[in-house]
Amino acid sequence: GLNSPFGKTMLARRLPTILPSLALEESIEITKLYSIANLLPPDIPLVTERPFRAPHHTISNVGLIGGGRTPKPGEISLAHNGVLFLDELPEFSRSALESLRQPLEDGIVTISRSLSSVSYTSSFMLIASLNPCPCGFYGDPVKVCTCSSSQIVKYRSKISGPLLDRIDIHIEVPRVNCREVMEKDSVENSFAIRERVERARKTQSERYCKDSIFCNAQMTKKQIQEYCNINDNAKNLLYKAI
């Protein structure tokens, strides 16, 4: 989750540039979904880039989750093996946001109809942005927030605790001084970061070559117990954090 009005959307849109290249299995999974949704161009037989989906906050539940008379994949499945970016998260309907909880947990969404049900894969990286308040300037050192306490509470209450719990990293994006940005001598570019990510993914892929998974995020409880052996000091630190 990202908040404040100072560059969060730009940061989110740059994330695909540092993600690792698709494995063949991932490409095939994405291609199947886009083919079912009639979104596969005739000149592209195989999707080779990670999806980046950024639906507008007015999207319907069916558009986000999937459905229709003949159930088709929604945005969460079209973002499979890629990024789903929800800009201005509180502006999405409460029901649409709540419907994200199970797919985030399971990596799959089931669309039920009276006579049948269809399941689509939906293992995506969710990035959500929101302002700290309706006007966007709560806590800003330069501009004064014009929102009342009740407005701020109402704005933040649009997002449930269980959904927030499923977002692993919450980042505040403060105002950045223009001069500070211009004076930066060396900034790591996306290519350098991506190389580092690729090395880490290669290590993980080799580690799990016999487990039918290829990255840490896919580990089951049993695999976590097998691969994540930590000493007592690390356990104590973990207990304190929880």
From TrEMBL:
<feature type="domain" description="Magnesium chelatase ChlI-like catalytic">
    <location>
        <begin position="7"/>
        <end position="179"/>
    </location>
</feature>
<dbReference type="Pfam" id="PF13335">
    <property type="entry name" value="Mg_chelatase_C"/>
</dbReference>
<dbReference type="GO" id="GO:0005524">
    <property type="term" value="F:ATP binding"/>
</dbReference>
<dbReference type="InterPro" id="IPR000523">
    <property type="entry name" value="Mg_chelatse_chII-like_cat_dom"/>
</dbReference>
<dbReference type="InterPro" id="IPR045006">
    <property type="entry name" value="CHLI-like"/>
</dbReference>
<protein>
    <recommendedName>
        <fullName>Magnesium chelatase ChlI-like catalytic domain-containing protein</fullName>
    </recommendedName>
</protein>
<dbReference type="Pfam" id="PF01078">
    <property type="entry name" value="Mg_chelatase"/>
</dbReference>
<feature type="domain" description="Mg chelatase-related protein C-terminal">
    <location>
        <begin position="188"/>
        <end position="241"/>
    </location>
</feature>
<dbReference type="InterPro" id="IPR027417">
    <property type="entry name" value="P-loop_NTPase"/>
</dbReference>
<dbReference type="InterPro" id="IPR025158">
    <property type="entry name" value="Mg_chelat-rel_C"/>
</dbReference>
